[in-house]
Each structure stands twice: as C-alpha cells, then as structure tokens.
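Q: Convert this sequence to structure tokens.
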Amino acid sequence: MKPFAYDEIGYWSEVKLDIVRKYASAYSTIMSAQPTIRKHIYIDAFAGAGRHVSRRTGEFVPGSPLNALEVAPPFSEIHLIDLHGGKVAELRRQIGSRQDVFIYEGDANKILLDTVFPRCRYEDFNRALCLLDPYALNVDWSVLQTAGQTGSIEIFYNFMIMDANMNVLWRNPDNVAPAQAVRMDKAWGDHSWREAAYVGKQTLWGDTVDEKARNEAIAEEFRKRLQEVAEFKYVPRPVPMRNEKGAVIYYLFFASPNKTGARIVEDIFNTYRIRGIA
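A:
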C-alpha cells in the first residue's frame, strides 16, 4: 500500500496554525476555569488528514486537529469534519478511538448547521471555538451568521480573496459566469458584494465607470458584515495571509461574542504585524 500523500503547506499556513494553536490554548484555559460553563468545544470544519508537510523544510507539521488534541486543559469535545474520504480515513487512523473526538465525512456547511452547532447552544452553558479553513469560497454565509447569532461560538475564518479575485471580482463584473456570482452570493450572504467590491470612478468624459476596490477595502466590508449582519460583537482587523510571491491568498478573520477573546487574538495578530510578517 502506498503511503498517504499529505498536503504540502507554505510558510503562511504554518503561521496560521501557530495563531490558532496559541489562541486555542488560551481559550481552553479560560473556559475550563469558568464554573458556569458545562462544555467548551473545538470544531474544525476542514480538518484534512491531521498533519501536513512543510514546503520549507520537508518535515511533517501537525495540523489543527492534532494541535487541538494536545491543548491542556483539554477541550470537552473535539469535532472534525472533512469532505474527502481519504483524509477522513487517515484522520481516524491517527486519532484512534476516543470518546471526546467526533469525526464526520461530508459537507461542512450541512454538518455544522444540522449536527455540531446544536451542541454549542448558549442556553445549555456550552461554548465553542470553530476553525473554518477552506481552500476556496466554500463556507456559506448561513454558517457564519448562525455562529454569530448563537452568542456562544467564536470563529477563525479564512476569507479566500484570491479565489474571489480569480473567479468573481473581475475588472468587468458583467463577464463573470452566473454560477461564480451565485457562489459569491452564498459566501457573502447576498448580492451586496457588488457594492463592496466596486467603486464608481468618473472618467475624463464625465461618465462613471466601476473600478474594483482594493483587497483591503473588500476585507473591511466583510469585517463589518460579520459584526453588523452576523452579529458577532467583536471582529478585529484580519491578518492577510500570502503565498511565496507575496500575493494575499486569504484574510484570516476572528469573530467573537467575547471581548476578552478578541483582545487576546488582536494581541496575537499584532505580534505578526509588528514583525512585518502580515
């Protein structure tokens, strides 16, 4: 049997794993100390095979599921989801049989809404930290809005701006394939991304033409949506994650109902900004 082919990841993915690992440790420590909290839950909606190969070093890098298993004090429950059957099988092999770990194969949007989020209800005195780490614009806005409105779920979310730029946010939006526009509608929550992504600019002849907004401006509009529409109380400025050429692949957002959590993550984010990494 051929060995499992783990995904290769670049430096920025290693940075993201480090950010999530640091906060997961702080989060679990804080929640474990709260006498009123019954359960604190970790969720990884695009869990992968559990570990990766570093493109820089060629060495194995623990993925977010394995990092979550090492957190002390431990999470009450860990829920891991992936669409890819081979990755799920490898994840099961690595983790083995544990009563506190639940592994699902299928569409993360459906599994989160139907199965996992109902276990994180505020009124049940449960809380959750959810990582939404897709490779493309695969997270439906309904997932983000549901998480925000629970008042009990904090999220890290990769907003895949490179996917949006390549397939939807073209210089002439009228040339975008209808299926791609629908995909953006689902990720944004409605069609208002058109207003966020394009600004009117007056030509020398007095006409007004649409010009694509900068990535930073689009990310800021999405940040506002997380606060104003999804109803997360605290959404710090996101961290741009780049490829080897320096192009922004996605923005790593954090959104929370908790001021303390937002302050901790903002400090972590700023560590990388000060170092000039983000």
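The chain has ten helices and twelve strands.
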